[in-house]
Amino acid sequence: MKRRLLTFFVILLLLLQIIMPLIGSAQSIDKLKEAALNTRKLTLAHGDSVEVFQLAPAAGSSPVIAGDGFYWWYGANSIQRTQGAAAGRLLDGAYSLFTREKALVEQGIYEQGQRKGLWRQWHKTGTLKSREYWKKGLREGKFEQYYPNGKMLKEGKYRRDKLVGVIKSYDEQGELTKSRYTQGELKQPKEKKSKQKKQLKKKREKPEKQQRLKSTLKKLQLKIKHFPKLKKAKEGVENNSTSYGYSEMNQANGEQTAKKQPWWKKLFRRNKAADVQQ
Asked: CA 99, CA 46: separation in Å to the nearest integer?
């Protein structure tokens, strides 16, 4: 009986020595899985580029997703982007994009899945390609774009991810072209009158102006010509009360009274009298 109990305890000890490591390894596997899920910094290689980014913690309260901004999240072994929604772990923290040769291509910061603050891009030569600002997953504020040689390509403003105001564009020679945008839509500039149109308009206006000048000159010449005659006619009107200058003659108490006519009729009659005397 004692031998049987002894053999039973020996077998039990052997089994415990075999099972305990297995239980420990299972626990360590679970810990590794949990650590992998909670790992914040990841490196993702695809094609000719390498992305280094951080994720929001898997544990804890789920983030609040609201508004029409864009969200970047990790799922299916790639970074996804959707507007106003997310279906994976949100990117949170520093982000960098490199080439296989470790040349920096893009860099910025995510906050709860949305781009925030200054984001920059570089050309393959290492010169700055663009600089823009983000707020709540939308481009907001000034932006600048550059040629590979470092010269300015375009500059302007975004408001809620839409171009607004005057956008300046430069060609490789540095010549400036301005465009005006309203809520992301290009406003068509008003057509400026060409020099030819202006010249044609002036040609059309010239004859009319010349005719007007000729008519005024003729009037002035007539006035100058008939000035002495008008003077004589006036003297004649003063000597003769029945001559031009009076329209009606009324007698009252043996005296003649005259009613004066308007000045413009006087002038007309004086001119007529001068023509008669001539």
From this structure: 10
